[in-house]
Each structure stands twice: as C-alpha cells, then as structure tokens.
Design a protein that fits this description.
This protein is of the alpha/beta class. The protein has a single domain, classed as TIM Barrel (Alpha-Beta Barrel), CATH 3.20.20. About 40% of the residues lie in helices and about 20% in strands. The protein has an eight-stranded parallel barrel, surrounded by five helices. Helix 1 runs parallel beside helix 9, helix 2 runs parallel beside helix 3 and helix 7 runs parallel beside helix 8. The longest helix has 15 residues. It is globular.
C-alpha cells in the first residue's frame, strides 16, 4: 500500500546549504534514504528559468524529484514571481513555500493567488516563528482568507512551537488550520530558559511526532512534506539519516 502524503517525505535543500554543488546534494539526498527535495535559493536561481532547467536535469538524472521550491518571499512583483511558478511547474511540483511581508501583503497575496490559479499550484505560507511576519496564527488566518483556496500553510513544526502555547502543531492541523495545511517541514527544537532553540532529531525534542503525523493522516493531508535539520551544515548526512529513521519508525 502506498504511503500517506504525511509519510511520503523528502528533504529541504537548506539542510545542505554549505554544499552548493547540486550533483553532490543529490547524492546526499539519496544517501539519507529519500528521493524528494524542496529546493531553496541556495541551490537554484528561480529568476533564471534556463539555469533552473539545468539544475532540474541534475536532480532528475540522480533520481531525485523536486516537489517544491522555496521559501520565496512574495512582494507582488508579478513579472519576477511568475518565473518562480514556471520553475515549479517545470519540475512537476504542485507547491511553493512562501513568505509575505507586512508592507506588501495586501497586493502580494492576491497577485500570488492569481498565479496559483494560472499554474495550478498551491502556496504554503511558511510559519517562521514569532519574529517573522506570518509566524502568528492570527496573521496566517488573515493571509489565508485573503489568498483563497490555493493559499494555505506550510507548517514548520519547530518554528510553530517557537511562538509559545499558541504554537501547537497538532492543534493547528486538527483544528486551527484544518484542511489548510498544504506543506510540512518536519523539524524539532529544544528550548533553554531564555527561549533560545537548538535543532534536534525530529521527534526527540518538543514535537509530539506520532500525534502530529496521526493528525495529518486523519485530516487527509495531501500536500508536500520534507524533513529539515539545520544544526550541522558542514556534515548534515548523519543527523538527517537519523531523522529519516525516526520518521520511518512510526507505527502505521
């Protein structure tokens, strides 16, 4: 039986940010035990479609599927942002991870929604903690309402928890944003007494990983999912391999 979308995960390319050779990144993706990637701007220039196609060929030749791009910051520059959709569409991806800004969201969100319709893609707004616009559930709720059916949430589980009691990944999936979770970054933090965070293997920190995956499956999540560990960019393979093993150890 095919894995659910919640368990059919890849990896975020930012984990490999200190390696800019895409052929080497593709090898590491396969080495950790997955075959899907969300490409970030460290590894591809989404403003240059011809250059992107060459990057895409590298991953395809290695047997790695590009399932999303981002995180891209949308400001309403339609000519530029349309190129990002062209890149995602060329990869066969159905998702772009996004940020919006407080000064431009009124124009940027409707413009992005129109591009979603044009290219038959969805945008997942990446929740990046309490210090970034779009980290608050109240803000995310407004952005989703402005954006309509094709703009939802890319829930980064660690940054979701960073905002405090309102940042419960399980509650967001099951209640607060039920049906609006379009992407997942499986990531986990521990926190010290000052609220500073440390990346840890997913499911070994504050994230209730079994309950979170169960919530995704119970709400029929059908989006993009990747693991993300940022703690060791010089040598990311061991920790990411452990993240993959942890995910696959979950009871069905």
């Amino acid at each position: 039986m095919a894995a659910s979308a919640a368990r059919d995960f890849g990896v975020q390319s930012y984990c490999f940010r200190n390696t800019t050779d895409n052929a080497k990144v593709a090898q590491m993706v396969k080495q950790i035990g997955v075959s899907k990637i969300e490409l970030c701007a460290v590894h591809a220039d989404f403003d240059d479609f011809d250059a992107f196609k060459k990057v895409l060929d590298i991953y395809r030749s290695a047997g790695v599927q590009v399932v999303s791009i981002g995180v891209q910051t949308f400001v309403g520059d339609i000519a530029r942002e349309k190129k990002w959709f062209q890149c995602a569409a060329a990869a066969g991806a159905k998702h772009i991870s996004a940020h919006f800004t407080v000064g431009t969201f009124r124009d940027a969100v409707p413009a992005a929604a129109k591009l979603c319709e044009e290219f038959d893609l969805r945008i997942g707004i990446h929740c990046h903690g309490g210090y970034m616009f779009g980290g608050s559930p109240d803000v995310l709720d407004i952005l989703c309402k402005i954006g309509g059916p094709r703009i939802g949430i890319n829930i980064d589980t660690a940054w979701c928890m960073q905002i405090g009691p309102q940042g419960d990944p399980v509650q967001w999936v099951s209640e607060k944003f039920k049906g609006k979770i379009f992407g997942v970054h499986y990531k986990d933090f521990t926190f010290d007494r000052r609220g500073q965070w440390t990346d840890v293997i997913v499911g070994t920190g504050n994230l209730n990983l079994p309950a979170f995956v169960k919530a995704l499956e119970e709400t029929h999540f059908d989006g993009m999912a990747v693991i993300e560990f940022e703690g060791d960019p010089e040598n990311p393979v061991p920790a990411l391999t452990d993240c993959v093993k942890k995910m696959r150890s979950l009871a069905p």
